[in-house]
Amino acid sequence: MKVLIPILIGLLVVACRGLLPTPTEPAIEKAQNETPSNGDEKNSTKVKLVKELTPEEQDAVKSGISARASDRLGNWGKIMRGKAEFYSASDVSDSNINLTKKWYEVASKAWGNYGPLEFWIVGSSKAAAEELDKKYCDIRKQKDPTISLKHCLNRGHNFVSYAKEGNAGLNTRRSENERWSGFIITMSAKFPGPEEEDYKSVVLHEYFHVYQHAHIHSRKHSERESMNQKNPWWGEGGAEYMAKLLYSKQKGIRPGYLKENMKRKLRSLENLRAGESIKDIPYGKRGMIAYDLGAWFIAFLINKTSEEAYRVKFYRDLNIEGFEGSFIKNFGSSSKDFLDEFHNTFLKLNLADKMKILP
Ligand SMILES: [Zn+2]
């Protein structure tokens, strides 16, 4: 029992971390740090001893141990037949839901249908968002009986926060201690709202994260983080560029769309410090620089290799080779060499020459 208690506490801490909406992210252009909220939850949970748990919670923790084995043979990373599930607050219109579905279809058709995936669409009513939170926790409990309803309902960044603050976010659930692995995308009524053009490319952006994370099979946090890189330059740069690129290729989108958006991202160059690498910029206040110039890095990489090498081959080999191994195998040099050339040569070109690498 002496050994069991620390294990149970450990499990609970990790399990509860997973209840957070986690990497709430920029939607559009506000990078947010995912770490602090995780940290808070972790600390507040740590104090709770197993003996303070209700019998139901204790059972949940215990059954979590065997739950881990249950989807070891699951379908993570495989193209799925089942479509994403859509949930929405009562003040969200049908046209808003259909718009989100439409852009999910565009993304999954282009990049493959991965999941399990849920979309949660929040409007601007806080009361409706609160109702949706209840529904959300019911669904969480249905899909993973080991979670604590109470913790789910009390989680830090819930749908009411989305109703107040707007933004979009992706919560990737895959850990050693959770029974259910999957993706939860939240869309809201502002920053961007459904009437804005950005709403569409944000759906694509979030979905590209699904694609990225579906190609990392490990349940270990450290391995997952290393394969997608801890700082935003790689994962966010990729999601941002691929979203804008795919959007620009849709029928009826003005021909200058991609160039216009990418040109705007170059404003972040002013905030890059002398000698600073985008790779070293964390999420948080200056994170946007890494989103913007990271998108340029992916454009640069694709221009030097191919979209196939980046989107298909790199991700295909990622699990086996790891980040650097797959990078060298598919792009022909190390990430350091590519980053050096990007900073020392490409970013120093004039605007017209930079724009030439875009399709
Ligand atoms: Zn993102």
Describe what you observe in this structure.
This protein is α/β, with parallel strands linked by helices and 359 residues long. The chain has 2 domains: 22-33 and 80-214, no CATH class; 229-355, Neutral Protease, domain 2 (Orthogonal Bundle). Helices cover 56% and strands 6% of the residues. It has helices at 4-17, 35-46, 55-70, 94-111, 126-143, 149-153, 159-165, 197-214, 221-228, 232-248, 257-265, 287-304, 307-331, 335-344, 351-355, and strands at 24-25, 85-88, 117-121, 168-173, 182-187. Strands 1-4-5-3-2 form a 5-stranded mixed β-sheet, covered by helices on one side. Helix 4 packs across helix 8 (197-214) and helix 5 runs antiparallel to helix 7 (159-165). It is globular and about 55 Å long. It starts with a helix and ends with a helix. Mean pLDDT is 84; it is low at 1-73.
Largest sheet: 5 strands, mixed
Topology pattern, helix = H, strand = E: HEHHEHEHHHEEHHHHHHHH
Q: Which class of secondary structure composition applies to the elements?
A: alpha/beta
Strand content: 5-15%
Fraction of residues in helices?
Answer: 55-70%
The rounded Rg comes to 21 Å
Ligand roster? zinc ion
Mean pLDDT: 84
What characteristic shape results from the CA principal axes?
A: globular
